[in-house]
Specification:
single chain; about 120 residues; mainly alpha; 4 helices; elongated
Length: about 120
């Protein structure tokens, strides 16, 4: 009888811990998503400012659209400005041009790279 009671208590404790862990995990995911949304918004604003895109508003920019060719239709001079922006604002120095092509596919890709590699807050 004592064994059965202890077993039920352990099961209840484990169930409570699992439920609390799931809640903590969900809250952490919400925080991460919000931080990424904020970074994407900030990047849009910085790109508009650095590239002097006077007629463009942050909400006009699709974060998943290509930055070069289609989308914002940026050119190689703009790429240099983005490299400077990343170094100045986020402490990220890009030395490999191929890496830049990868990173500058879209604002979302830039944000993911910055979140993982930034040295400045």
């Amino acid at each position: 009888m004592i064994f059965a009671t202890n077993s039920r208590i352990k099961t209840n404790i484990i169930s409570e811990l699992v439920a609390k862990s799931e809640l903590v995990a969900k809250n952490i995911i919400k925080i991460i998503i919000k931080k990424m949304e904020n970074l994407i918004q900030k990047l849009k604003e910085e790109i508009i400012e650095v590239l002097n895109l006077e007629d463009v508003k942050p909400e006009d920019i699709d974060e998943n659209a290509p930055l070069f060719g289609e989308g914002l239709n940026l050119d190689s001079i703009d790429a240099l400005e983005l490299i400077v922006l990343m170094e100045k604002n986020y402490g990220i120095k890009l030395n490999d041009p191929n890496k830049g092509k990868e990173i500058f596919r879209s604002i979302s890709v830039m944000a993911e790279y910055i979140a993982a590699n930034r040295t400045k807050k």
